[in-house]
From TrEMBL:
<feature type="binding site">
    <location>
        <position position="108"/>
    </location>
    <ligand>
        <name>substrate</name>
    </ligand>
</feature>
<dbReference type="InterPro" id="IPR001874">
    <property type="entry name" value="DHquinase_II"/>
</dbReference>
<comment type="function">
    <text>Catalyzes a trans-dehydration via an enolate intermediate.</text>
</comment>
<dbReference type="GO" id="GO:0003855">
    <property type="term" value="F:3-dehydroquinate dehydratase activity"/>
</dbReference>
<dbReference type="GO" id="GO:0009423">
    <property type="term" value="P:chorismate biosynthetic process"/>
</dbReference>
<feature type="binding site">
    <location>
        <position position="84"/>
    </location>
    <ligand>
        <name>substrate</name>
    </ligand>
</feature>
<dbReference type="InterPro" id="IPR036441">
    <property type="entry name" value="DHquinase_II_sf"/>
</dbReference>
<dbReference type="GO" id="GO:0008652">
    <property type="term" value="P:amino acid biosynthetic process"/>
</dbReference>
<dbReference type="GO" id="GO:0009073">
    <property type="term" value="P:aromatic amino acid family biosynthetic process"/>
</dbReference>
<feature type="binding site">
    <location>
        <begin position="98"/>
        <end position="99"/>
    </location>
    <ligand>
        <name>substrate</name>
    </ligand>
</feature>
<comment type="similarity">
    <text>Belongs to the type-II 3-dehydroquinase family.</text>
</comment>
<dbReference type="Pfam" id="PF01220">
    <property type="entry name" value="DHquinase_II"/>
</dbReference>
<feature type="site" description="Transition state stabilizer">
    <location>
        <position position="17"/>
    </location>
</feature>
<comment type="pathway">
    <text>Metabolic intermediate biosynthesis; chorismate biosynthesis; chorismate from D-erythrose 4-phosphate and phosphoenolpyruvate: step 3/7.</text>
</comment>
<keyword id="KW-0456">Lyase</keyword>
<dbReference type="InterPro" id="IPR018509">
    <property type="entry name" value="DHquinase_II_CS"/>
</dbReference>
<keyword id="KW-0057">Aromatic amino acid biosynthesis</keyword>
Amino acid sequence: MKIIIINGPNLNLLGKREPEIYGSLTFEDYFSSLQKKFAAVELEYFQSNHEGTLIDKIHEIGFSYQGIVINPGAFTHYSYALYDALKAVTTPAIEIHISDIDKREDFRKVSVTSAACIAQIKGKGLSGYEDAIHTFIKNTK
Ligand SMILES: O=C1C[C@@](O)(C(=O)O)C[C@@H](O)[C@@H]1O
C-alpha cells in the first residue's frame, strides 16, 4: 500500500515556524516516527512551496497510490487549481491541518480544497497525519 504525505507552503519550516501553533518538531523527525509506526505501508513525503509543483506531484502519483494525505497550507483557502488536481486523479485524498482552522482568522475558515477530499482533519496537531493514514488503512481492508 502506497500513501503519500504532501505538505504545501511554509510547512518546510515546521519546528521553527510559530511553534506555539504548529509545535516544535520538524516534519522530517515526525515522518521518521511515522515510517516506524506504519512499517507495512510504503510511506512517502513530499513538500513544496509552489502550487504548480504540488499539482505536478498529484498528477504523478494520483492514479497509482492508495492515499494522499495533504496539508495544502494557505493554498487550502484559495487554490481552485489544487482542488481541480485532487478531483482529476483517482487516488482519494484526506485534507489535514495541524491547527484548528475554524478557530483562527476568518480567511482560514474557508477550505476550497476539502470538497475534493474524502475527509478533513484539523486541530489535532501532527497526530492528524497519523489519523489520516489509519483511515486509509481501514478503508482498504
Ligand atoms: O500553512 C498553514 C498551515 C495549516 O494548513 C495547518 O496545518 O494548520 C493552516 C493554514 O491556514 C496555514 O496557512
